[in-house]
Amino acid sequence: MQTWLAIQLVSTFSSPLLATGGPAGASYYPIFVLGLGITAVLGLIIGMRMNAFLALTLSAVLVSLLVVGPDGFQMSQAGARMQAVVSAFGDAAGRIGIVIAMAAIIGKCMLDSGAADRVVRTAVAITGIPKASIGLMGSGFVLAVPVFFDTVFYLLVPLARSLHQRTGQNYLRYLLAIATGGVVTHTLVPPTPGPLLVGENLGVDIGTMMWTGILIAIPSAIIGLVVAVFMDRWMPLPMRPLGPDDTQSTPLDENQLPPLWLALLPIVVPVVLIGAGTLTTTLADNEDKALLTTADLVDPEAFRSQLRQAVASEQPSAGKQWVNLDVFQAEDRQLMTDQGTLSEPQVQQLIETINRGLNSRQFYDQTAFSAVPLSAAARSGLEADPERLKPVLRRRLNRALLEDAFPQQIQPHQWDTPRRQWAERLGLWSDPNFALLLAGLVAIATLKHVRGYSLNELSGQIETALMSGGMIILITSAGGAFGAMLKAADVGDTVEQMFADSRSGGVGLIFLAFTVSAILKVAQGSSTVAMIVASGMIAGIISGQTLAFHPVYLGTAIGSGSLLGSWMNDSGFWVFAKMGGLTEGEALRSWTVLLSVLAISGLLFTLLLSQLLPMAG
Predict the structure, then answer these.
(1) C-beta pairs of 582-586 under 8 Å, 24+ apart in sequence
(2) pLDDT of residue 187
(3) Which end of the chain is more exposed for a tag (fewer CB within 10 A), N or C?
(4) What's this model's pTM, rounded to 2 decimal places?
(5) Which domain holds residue 370?
């Protein structure tokens, strides 16, 4: 009854927000829901000291009930809203469950076997104890280029814990050093998926995105390391057990520690496997085999004739859907539907126009394609998450749809090239879940070898690790469900409409790119999703504009913005807090502040480079 009354009150008092138009006629109600969701999470966790899993789950349910459907608030749909929360929770757990579980096992085994201690002793011997945080930051910086940040932190946090055991100080500095190195390259340097997709959406080649991202990431990381030093002095934290049963084994003598190559194996195995998969996939993606060539268009005049007939018909069709794509201008549509024979330059122009259309997100429509038999490639592409679909795969999907709709005019493309075949062969081995599974087995074998545990003793150690990892999985998945419900509240669409009329071609556009990405990050938690959505929006805004600088700087501004406002709906927040043994309040004062500093420094260095090295034209 109380819930029903609350929803009715929200419905009544928020109706003016639903009708309010922004700069582009946008409703501000989703922003209201965002604010309410943030307040609920912070109030329950910090104010009421509620367990983070319960607080995030309750807040996800609250937000889901506030999502306005086509018919307004319908309490009869409350059951379906709860199922949406459950489904989003399951999706998040499916993405990170195995990775977190295996990382917890790797961390526990590396600590207890002395592997982490061996690595730390070697690093300290090279850099010295006062500079150990530089080594941790550099390791995170390099490893996060081919590997997701969460995985990098899982791999390196045992080294930070072991180093603290050895030195007895600077625990927070070591954690923040790893975080600093990992997050800057995770958001700025391809082939990490986020910046890779940003570059593709903005038309920036991977090489330019990579070296520009590195130029901005290096000074930002240095600033982050300085902040880590001051923060460690300001709020020094003890190293706490990761769970009630997380006890450390008796330290080993120097001669009992595993050799360095064996100690590094649980880290090297996933990095090499995932990196190899990233490299082969990147090389295959660069071929971009979905793009048409002049030989792929069998008869340009017949193709244009079919498009004319489709446009003239009142019935929905794939041809009409294609011509009306929003990526085309009036002259593009005229070129595709005019009569007459095309000259060779006009054929080439038609091919370029078609290839531009392959980037569209709106080509497939169920009604328009109702009479078109879909190929396996098209069906596979349609089953993927559209927001996480790389541009090269989106072009493949649209090319397959185009071939299905015009089988007599568009030649089938060859996707399975030798490079693509190599990428697919490595698909299993480079999958983070499988790579960490192998690394976990190596870490378990090392622990058994060094400690001489029986199988029962070994099972007990693994169970202890999984108990601590299980709580992290629950909290991270609940955060994913909360972010999904905010997404269902159309926060992203509202932001897009609010900025739809922004046409500043100067540095104001860099600020806009940064702001949009930051708002999306706060709203739904994922830096990668924020970068993908924001880059798509900015690409639409700058279409047809002449910029005073290279669009790569819009990409680095978007990447920097995706670091701002990392809080309790971000999986990285919970990975840092729970794997590091920090409370939520401590994570907000350290992790969130550090990432905000990195975001601002990334923006400032982007602005500076855009003026010193504009690369315009």
Answers:
(1) 582/175, 582/237, 584/45, 584/46, 584/52, 585/46, 586/235, 586/237
(2) 92
(3) N
(4) 0.67
(5) 294-413
